[in-house]
Every structure is written in structure tokens, then in C-alpha cells.
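pipeline/complex-builder :: batch 7 item 3
reading input block
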Amino acid sequence: MITVAIAGASGYAGGELLRLLIAHPDAEVVQITSERLAGKFAHRTHPNLRGLTRLRFSPLGDLSSCDVLFSCLPHGASSRRIDDFRTVADRIVDLGADFRLSDATAYQRFYGKPHPRPELLGRFVYGIAELNRDALRTADLVACAGCNATASILALRPLRLEGVVESAVIEVKVGSSEAGNRATEASHHPERSGAMRSYKPTGHRHMAEIQAVLGGRVHFSATAVEMVRGILATCHVFVHPGLGLDDKALWKIYRRAYAPEPFVRIVKERTGIHRYPDPKLLAGSNYCDIGFEADPHANRVVVLSAIDNLMKGAAGQAVQAFNIMHGLPERRGLEFPGLHPA
Amino acid sequence: MSECPVCGAEVAISDDPVEGELLDCEECGAELEILALGPITLGEAPEMEEDWGE
């Protein structure tokens, strides 16, 4: 058994990670932390776990040694505690944003302050398995990607590698769980319910990761919609003129990129009501569904990508990386296919 | 095996194919028709017609 602990397990990503890890046949969750809820049972905060675990939250300062420490602390917190973490576990998987970038200048630009530990930037393997599987096999430090970045990067990377992208505009529709489990004025039910709120037309922090991975001219906007879990990224890709990219050519590109991938599916049906990716069908699953369509009247391709932000965009991605780091089958503990109807 | 004319996926053909036989592409869901047997040629089945030979 691989012993694991979760720092910051009271949030939605931490709760999702706990749900996955207590059912994982090769992992034993030995400790979970929350300052606010120290001493309380986990199932009081994550009621779906009632009867499945008797773990109680501990204070962060009580962390004892384990094989792998997952950090679900708020952004900025893990970089302050990274030295302590490294005395607790040889392997660290950080679900926060602190170590996703390797460029301190980009960090300062998007996060508005200098990185507290710039010497560690670049030491972490960016956690998207489809990009960095080989590096993950031997990684001791992993930084899971942002949820919007995950959906966007998986959508666009095959076209970027093909060298066909002139520029791209990504619009993501996101569910309320992306904002975390602490109530704010924006999450107050009369304000949030039914909202279709453009909350970050430019300058979203995940843009830093998208830019770092994809490069080139890529733009990003985010809109909060009536959904709890899920992201749908609609990517308008302007391709170089004269390429004559049609749907069949796109099938070839995406099939080549993702056919062997256990958690990326091409969804592009000719008929029916489920012709393109829909995050509603992915709740609780680790899949990223990707669809596309070439616009025959313009040098434009529309790529659609859907994920559960708490799964492929956070906890599921972390467990997939954990499996790879330990030479386990990649799907272990992640077999849940989602619900229909949901 | 034959190639789907819509998405390029491999489409399994039965051991005893018949001209006019309809098949579905597993990957893109296109409804296909066997247009010719030697060699096997697939085309998209017409969407709104009666009596496709089924």
C-alpha cells in the first residue's frame, strides 16, 4: 500500500481527491488536514463519504510522514510550506497554482506578485498525463494543471503540434464549484443561480499555463453558467489559409493524438442529441471529451472540449499522475464513467 | 475492414456483405451503405429515403 495524505482536504478538490483515494486499491489515506475543521470527521464536510471513512481532519502542523502528500491548499499556501512538505513525503502532488509555471516573470504578471520560491519553478512536472507521461513516471514533484487550462490545452494541442494554428480564441463556460467551497457575494444563491456571468473576459490566470504550453497567439475568456461541475471550452481556431482542413483531416489529427489515451475521447457524432462534448455527462468521471468541426466558409476550426473541473481538472488528474508515478495502470481508481441521465 | 468515408475510421464488414447493406461507423456514428462489393466501397447512406433495401 502506498500511504498518502491530503493537505487542505476540506475543499471541493480535496473532498473529490479523498473520494477517489479511499476507493483506490493501492492507496491508503493516512491523514487529511484542515485548520478550520481539525478534529471533525471528514464525512461532516463531505457527506457523500459517510460510512466510507472514519478519518478526521488534523491541523497541518500535525502532518506525519507518508509516501505521497497531495496538497489542495489555496493558491500561495503550498509554496510557503513546501520545505515542510518535503520533510513529510518524498513525493508531492500539488493541485494548486504555485508551481505550474516555470517562468517567474509570467507568474508575477498573472498572479500580481513575485513568486516566493522562484528557484523551485521548473522543478515540478506539469501534471497533464497526455503531455508529460514520461516525465511523470520518475517525478517526485508534480503540479497539476488548472482546470480551464486542462480543457483548453487538450483541445488545442493536437492542432498546435500540427502547425496549423494562426491564432485561437477560447471561451470557457464553467460551473460554480470552480470558485471553491467558501461562500462569497458572487456565490450567494440569488446572485449565482441562473447566472450567465462573464467573469474574466481577459487576463485569467490559467492563461499563463495555456500560453506556456501552447505558445503563439491564444486568447481566453471565461463565463460562469448554471452548472455545479463542469467546463465546456469552445475554441475558435483560425488556421493558416490554404490548408483545406476538413472534418476528415481533423479526425486524423485528433485520432493520432488521442487514440491511445485512456481518458480522452473524440465525440463527434453525425446525428442524435449527443453529437458534441457535454460536461453534464462527465460529472464524476476523469474523461476529457473533445469534438471539432471545420468551417467550410472560413479558415476556422471550432474545437469543443468538456471535462469535470473537479476530476480531470483537479483530483482525477492528480490520481492519474499518481498512478503513472507508481507504475500502476493509469485507469486504476478512475473507472467511473459518469452518469446518464444526470 | 473498410474505411469510413466520413471520419476515416476502420469499419468492420461482415463475412458475407451485400450491396446496399447499411452499417454504422462506431466512431463518428455515420450511417453508411455498401455501394459496391469488389472492392468494397462505402458511402454515406441517404438520410431521408424510403426502401433502402433493409
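note: The two ends of chain A are 34 Å apart (CA to CA).
queue -> next item
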